[in-house]
């Protein structure tokens, strides 16, 4: 096959990948908005989230609501009124808001939030590719197929409720892992700060950092202590500010759900589902020692996630495990490659590499 033929095949594949990405991301986002939707839980209704009157702990997830308010402030009042009136008069818009259960009084806020959430979804796809190239060497086609499959896999997380901060959470956490794997510490700390404003589970990045870089072979003690203290200081400062800002809101730091629901769920799974999960776990740990050490250390975040979800949430509400999703997907990629005959070769960045 000539170089021209190879170039044409590569070009055709890129066009296919781009089209598939656009279509699949639109479908995933549509499912996210419609099933189960973003405005169904009375303690975290859209307008309350945007304007800071929602209950704790939801109101603390302030990144996207703050961004929406800032955009609203940048729009002149007369322009906002004209946009609201113009769009609000369209029958299609009215029908859409009725079907989705959205309040038309927040019409502009919804469109801004939708744009930011969709950008976060695309950000997750980009961050996942960035993380993948930081832990494996794979062919471009394997990388592309993996990101498409993982993108579609997000739909399995949409149960009970979806929230404004879900896509920003999986995007920023994945990006944080990618920057950590490359030891880009200045950029990492900026992303860490932004992620703390979005969700308190950002502290799990610090767990990964502590587990992976504790060894003197990967980082000096002084550097380790400095970066660890920086993360803890950022996390504490952000949460102190958020607690102070929303101290009069109803609710508490965490929703406590008595574990009876989770006990019932564990006893209600059909045998086929149990075998399916067991198969997934076996595939996850297949050739375990050959997989990137960074990913193996990162998987430990599943332990606190499951423990917290058992006590404070629903075990079958998979959105509680968004932070672990890119790690599990990448570990499975190595196993699938071994079974299907393609290579995902682990790579390692030294702790000082790429320091910015």
Can you describe this structure?
This protein has 356 residues and is mainly alpha-helical. It has one domain. Helices cover 67% and strands 1% of the residues. It contains 16 helices and two strands. The chain has helices at residues 3-34, 46-50, 63-74, 77-88, 91-100, 107-135, 140-153, 166-181, 185-198, 203-213, 221-245, 260-268, 271-285, 293-298, 302-312, 325-340; strands at residues 136-137, 345-346. Strands 1-2 form a two-stranded antiparallel sheet. Helix 1 (3-34) packs parallel to helix 7 (140-153) and helix 6 packs parallel to helix 8. The radius of gyration is 22 Å and the shape is globular. The chain starts with a helix and ends in a 10-residue tail after the last strand. The mean pLDDT is 90.
Précis, in short:
With 356 residues, this protein is an all-alpha fold. The chain is built from 16 helices and two strands.
């Amino acid at each position: 096959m000539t170089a021209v033929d190879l170039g044409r095949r590569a070009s055709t594949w890129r066009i296919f990948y781009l089209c598939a990405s656009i279509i699949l991301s639109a479908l995933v986002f549509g499912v996210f908005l419609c099933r189960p939707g973003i405005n169904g839980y009375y303690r975290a209704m859209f307008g309350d989230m945007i304007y800071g009157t929602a209950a704790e702990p939801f109101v603390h997830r302030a990144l996207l609501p703050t961004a929406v308010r800032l955009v609203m402030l940048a729009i002149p009042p007369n322009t906002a009124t004209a946009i609201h009136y113009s769009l609000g008069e369209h029958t299609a818009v009215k029908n859409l808001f009725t079907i989705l259960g959205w309040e038309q009084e927040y019409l502009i806020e919804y469109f801004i939030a939708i744009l930011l959430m969709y950008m976060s979804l695309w950000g997750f796809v980009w961050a996942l590719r960035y993380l993948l190239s930081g832990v494996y060497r794979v062919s471009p086609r394997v990388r592309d197929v993996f990101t498409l499959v993982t993108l579609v896999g997000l739909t399995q997380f949409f149960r009970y409720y979806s929230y404004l901060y879900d896509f920003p959470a999986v995007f920023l956490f994945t990006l944080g892992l990618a920057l950590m794997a490359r030891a880009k510490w200045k950029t990492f700390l900026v992303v860490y700060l932004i992620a703390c404003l979005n969700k308190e589970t950002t502290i799990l990045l610090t767990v990964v950092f502590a587990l992976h870089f504790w060894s003197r072979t990967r980082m000096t003690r002084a550097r380790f202590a400095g970066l660890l203290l920086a993360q803890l200081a950022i996390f504490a400062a952000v949460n102190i500010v958020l607690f102070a800002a929303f101290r009069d809101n109803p609710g508490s730091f965490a929703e406590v759900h008595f574990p009876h629901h989770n006990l019932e769920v564990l006893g209600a799974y059909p045998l086929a589902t149990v075998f399916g999960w067991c198969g997934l776990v076996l595939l996850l740990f297949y050739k375990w020692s050959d997989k990137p050490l960074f990913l193996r250390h990162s998987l430990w975040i599943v332990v606190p996630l499951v423990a917290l979800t058992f006590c404070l949430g629903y075990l079958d509400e998979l959105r509680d495990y968004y932070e672990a999703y890119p790690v599990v997907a990448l570990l499975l990629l190595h196993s699938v490659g071994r079974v299907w005959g393609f290579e995902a070769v682990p790579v390692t960045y030294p702790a000082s590499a790429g320091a910015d």
